[in-house]
């Protein structure tokens, strides 16, 4: 899943919002509180920065399952296939 596709799918859920800033996908709840940051080159859940103690306080079960499934798909996509510009990693593509 490409980065722009991932953010578009996150934004389809009314309870959350995603944007890409400086090589990181930032995800916010519907109150505009940052919930987590996913590095565009993340390969596992340990590469994700969390800003909350419990997703239950931000999202209902359906939204948590939706976001979790998207993150899993994103993390399983090889890094070189995530970037929109000819498969070149974000940092290299900007040079």
Search tags:
95 residues, alpha+beta, 4-stranded antiparallel sheet, 3 helices, 4 strands, 31% helix, 22% strand, globular
Describe it for me?
This protein is of the alpha+beta class and 95 residues long. The protein contains 3 helices and 4 strands. The chain has helices at residues 3-11, 61-76, 90-93; strands spanning 16-21, 24-29, 34-39, 48-50. A 4-stranded antiparallel β-sheet has the order 1-2-3-4, covered by helices on one side. The two termini are 23 Å apart. The mean pLDDT is 86.
How are the SSEs placed, and which strands pair?
Elements: H1 3-11, E1 16-21, E2 24-29, E3 34-39, E4 48-50, H2 61-76, H3 90-93
Antiparallel strand pairs: 1-2, 2-3, 3-4
Main beta-sheet strand count, sense and barrel state: 4 strands, antiparallel
Spatial strand arrangement across the major sheet: 1-2-3-4
Tell me the β content: 15-25%
Uncertain stretches of 5 or more adjacent residues:
none
Topology pattern, helix = H, strand = E = HEEEEHH
Mean pLDDT: 86
| Helix percentage | 25-40%
Task: Write a compact overview of the structure shown.
Helix content is 31%, strand content 22%. With 95 residues, it is of the alpha+beta class.
């Amino acid at each position: 899943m490409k980065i722009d596709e991932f953010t578009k799918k996150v934004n389809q859920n009314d309870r959350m919002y995603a944007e890409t800033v400086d090589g990181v996908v930032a995800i916010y709840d519907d109150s505009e509180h940052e919930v987590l940051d996913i590095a565009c080159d993340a390969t596992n859940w340990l590469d994700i920065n969390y800003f909350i103690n419990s997703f239950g306080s931000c999202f209902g079960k359906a939204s948590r399952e939706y976001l979790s499934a998207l993150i899993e798909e994103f993390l399983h996509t090889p890094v070189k296939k995530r970037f929109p510009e000819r498969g070149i990693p974000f940092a290299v593509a900007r040079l």
